[in-house]
Write a structure and sequence with these properties.
alpha/beta; five-stranded parallel β-sheet; disordered N terminus; disordered C terminus; BTAD domain-containing putative transcriptional regulator
Length: 726
């Protein structure tokens, strides 16, 4: 197709010339080459030919318009002008203008188009040898210097703008982009037929979009954010998938103090790209998004951070970066940036067997929303250690801070932290001590959301007991993440990830013990180490207490401590070290239960099997099976009861020990529970035996469904149900 003018304004820039930065440069009359207008004598200008292609094609000599004839003749002229200095062959001209349907007479038709163009463009008396369109062997050539073109001015203004921007003179660059854009009078080469005109229209449209992009970036770097946003709205033929324009919009919104809208704009663009094209945003758009999350003013706005308020614009914007001058005054010192706050507790030295859980908690989350992960598990299973490790893994991704709040739901009686007190702490952590804060929950929640709406925070909420405690604490900033840990499952909390932390397997428990005791000591008694891990039930709290006791008793062997823990009634007493106690941790969970649930919990320790359904406790409680299963499900939510499969329950070994110690304090109740279980199992054996329900040689009469004197009969009892309980 020959040599075209520059396609984009953003191409490479040569060395900076001070004259270029002021918008003056050497004039060039060559169509399609860079140059700016020379000052001309008025007499010469009055006779000068001018061609306009950045709109409907037109020509003037001085002020007088010239008739170029039909659009196909204009297309021939455009093909020659846009390839100035290049010989355009007859065949190439036919292909450019007629495409796959050339005229029947072939190249013989071309003189009928070229002759009228010469007659219109050349001054009176001009011969063929001096014509603007020269005929040569095999084709035609448009002669440089015969006409000034808006295409040439466009190239000159664009090049000057590029050089000024590269030199740091943003004001001159903005002015150059504006003058270049003003040359467009509509769609370039409007109405011209042929493949060449179509291709050039697309190229010039791209160049126009690039000029808009360059001009908008100058406005952003100059701090004129509102104008930049207006420019983006006025951009011609703005495509919905144009990532550079989307990036500029995000930068302009951010510069205006509208960080939330900037993040939403990114998410909107990302959703459109993924939904309509199946693509993720490109590297530049992702880099801008990360800059917004990090509040990177230098990368986004070309300057160091300064305080911004919503709606700030040119009046608040700092002077743009410019080329250095000898007389430049020293810049005032910038205010110190707000320190990044990190309240996370120290990470544990050894976190064993939690790779899968950690991967789930640290998985990337949608950047435009607040992500909530809820972690639950029985007392001493290592929930806090897990979420703290996850928080430390993620903390670099949260430039506005990492906050930690302990709600003390299982601390001293009535000592749990109210949402109001937690919000006081959090608001002061973000904004410092700003005087007295209200104690009205609704007002505090509003203040907290306003304070965090432009921040990307990581918040860890530990020892939560209810969704009602947690909801007011959720930050509002897009991209923030909340990790909630507690013994109680929180179905009322909208969480996108939920995780129940289970006790460690025997191998993982031995690994933790080995870390605590040292390989030499643990490997001396491998079998005792395994038994000790089993006696601790895989609970990290129990393992750490055991490790601490052995560290403080170097004369003890592991087998010795196993022997002390071999008695189930004594085992919990051995798992105590100063104020750390497995039994105390369980007791705190028990104390939070309602009286009905406490009664169920005490009864579960009397079940003769490790795993059971709802029938056995229903018989002990004298309740219907459905009511009993509802109570059991609430104990599952409290992490005091495990549910290995549908409608089947089991107690952790150490929890079972605790239930029996609690039951021992109410001997009459315990005796009645044991009698009820005996009655149930006797009935089950009698019904299942070969003798039949009335032929069992010993025991009470169980020819009817089992019930206890003075208690409501258990509904839904069947021989099959009885068999399932054994």
């Amino acid at each position: 197709m020959g040599t075209n003018t520059a396609d984009t304004v953003g191409s490479g820039v040569g060395a900076w010339d001070p004259a270029d930065a002021t918008g003056t440069s050497a004039a060039t009359d060559t169509a399609g080459t860079a140059g700016a207008e020379d000052a001309e004598d008025a007499a010469d200008a009055a006779d000068r030919l001018r061609l306009d292609l950045l709109g409907p094609v037109g020509a003037h000599r001085g002020e007088a318009p010239l008739d170029l004839g039909p659009v196909r003749r204009q297309a021939v002229l455009a093909a020659l002008v846009l390839r100035a200095e290049t010989l355009v062959t007859h065949q190439q001209l036919l292909d450019d203008v007629w495409g796959p349907e050339p005229p029947g007479t072939g190249r013989r038709v071309l003189p009928s188009y070229v002759y009228p163009l010469r007659k219109a463009l050349d001054a009176p008396g001009t011969g063929p040898a001096a014509s603007a369109i020269r005929g040569e062997r095999g084709g035609y050539r448009f002669v440089p210097g015969q006409a000034r073109t808006d295409i040439g001015e466009l190239a000159g203004q664009s090049a000057a703008a590029r050089r000024a921007k590269a030199a740091g003179d943003l004001t001159t660059a903005l002015d150059g982009c504006t003058r270049a854009l003003n040359l467009f009078r509509g769609e370039p080469l409007a109405g011209l037929p042929g493949p060449f005109a179509d291709a050039e229209r697309q190229r010039l449209a791209r160049q126009r979009r690039t000029l808009h992009q360059e001009r908008t970036e100058c406005l952003v770097l100059l701090g004129r954010y509102t104008e930049a946003l207006d420019e983006l709205l006025a951009a011609p033929a703005a495509r919905p998938h144009d990532e550079p324009l989307a990036a500029l919009r995000i930068r302009a919104l951010y510069g205006s103090g509208r960080q939330t809208e900037a993040l939403a704009a990114y998410q909107e663009t990302r959703d459109r790209l993924r939904g309509e094209l199946g693509l993720e945003p490109g590297e530049e758009l992702r880099r801008v998004h990360q800059g917004v999350l990090r509040r990177d003013d230098l990368m986004l706005l070309g300057r160091a951070p300064l305080p911004r308020t919503a709606g700030s614009d040119a009046a608040q914007a700092p002077a743009p970066p410019s080329a250095p001058t000898l007389a430049s005054a020293p810049e005032p010192p910038l205010p110190p940036p707000r320190p990044r706050r990190n309240e996370l507790p120290g990470d544990t030295a050894w976190l064993v067997g939690r790779e899968t859980e950690l991967a789930l908690l640290t998985t990337p989350v949608p950047p435009g929303s607040v992500s909530v992960a809820a972690v639950d598990g029985t007392a001493g299973v290592g929930k806090t250690a897990l979420v703290v490790r996850a928080a430390w893994t993620l903390h670099d991704q949260y430039p506005d801070g990492c906050l930690f709040v302990d709600l003390h739901a299982h601390g001293v009686p009535h000592g749990s932290l109210r949402p109001q007190r937690a919000l006081h702490r959090l608001i002061r952590a973000v904004h410092g001590a700003d005087g007295e804060l209200t104690d009205e929950l609704d007002e505090l929640v509003t203040a907290w959301r306003a304070a965090t709406s432009s921040l990307r925070l990581l918040l860890v909420v530990d020892d939560a007991r209810s969704a009602e405690q947690v909801r007011p604490l959720l930050p509002a900033g897009p991209g923030s993440r909340v990790l909630v840990a507690g013994r109680q499952r929180l179905p009322g909390l909208d969480a996108d990830r939920r995780l129940t932390v289970e006790p460690l397997g025997t191998g993982e428990a031995v690994t933790l013990l080995t870390h605590l005791l040292g390989e030499a000591r643990a490997e001396q008694e491998p079998e005792a180490a395994q038994e000790l891990a089993r006696r601790c039930g895989g609970l990290p709290l129990a393992l750490r207490i055991t490790g601490a006791r052995l560290q403080n008793r170097p004369s003890w062997t592991l087998a010795h401590l196993v022997g002390r823990m071999s008695d189930d009634e004594r085992r919990l007493g051995e798992l105590r070290a100063e104020d750390r106690s497995v039994e105390a941790a369980f007791r705190m969970s028990y104390d939070q239960l309602t009286p009905d649930l406490q009664r169920v919990f005490r009864a579960l320790g009397q079940s003769p099997t490790a795993e059971f359904d709802g029938l056995t406790p229903a018989v002990m409680l004298g309740r219907s099976r459905q009511d009993t299963e509802d109570l059991l499900e609430r104990l599952v939510d409290a992490s005091l009861l495990q549910q290995p499969r549908l409608s089947r329950y089991r107690l952790h070994d150490l929890v079972r020990d605790h239930t029996r110690r609690l039951a021992a304090a109410v001997p009459e109740e315990t005796a009645a529970d044991r009698a009820a279980v005996l009655h149930l199992y006797t009935a089950a054996g009698r019904i299942a035996s070969d003798w039949g329900p009335e032929g069992f040689p010993t025991g009470p009469d169980v020819s009817h469904s089992p019930s206890r004197t003075g208690r409501t009969p258990t509904h839904g009892w069947t021989p099959q149900a009885a068999n399932c309980s054994t």
